[in-house]
Predict the structure of Carbamoyl phosphate synthase small subunit.
Amino acid sequence: MPMTIESIIERLGGADNAARLTGVGTEAIRKWRQARAIPAKHWPVILRHAGLSLADLQPDSASDPAETTMPQPQVPTPAVVCADTPPDGATAVLVLADGTSLWGRGFGAQTSPDGAAIGELCFSTGLTGYQETLTDPSFAGQIITFTFPHIGNVGANPEDDEAARVAARGLVVKQDLTEPANWRAAEGLDAWLAERGVPGI
């Protein structure tokens, strides 16, 4: 069952310590209490320092909305949302801050609910350079949605890394990864992601 904002702040050592650990002021902690929500960008720090799992930060539809860690959705649930039961063939889920769950097929690194990738969801419209985008430090902490349909078509190789490690926390694509068909490919994108601990859906 999800924990309340108060119990999470208490597990972090009180408001002052929670502010210090998450890099915000005590005014932000007051706003968390007022909104009954903690912004998702702070979840990795909270999970690490409070010894919690991702499930502890998720809303529980059966509980009192005033006691959840996230606000309940204010918009109608889209048709693509599937609550607790994954559709046939689904092996991964993308959970948005409002609790919306989007199911799909996972690739790359396999993660448990406790080790889920948490980050800001953004998008890239580039036709090339998916490996460069994933390793670009400016995308640190983000889950990148690629709009181009042929992600994976050139595979992966060490020469295309922008940094020594992957900066993005994960990636989202609409279609299955394309098999590499490029002479420069040292390996497929799926294997490259798995080696680096980056999940995709």
In short: The CA atoms of residues 149 and 175 lie 6 Å apart.
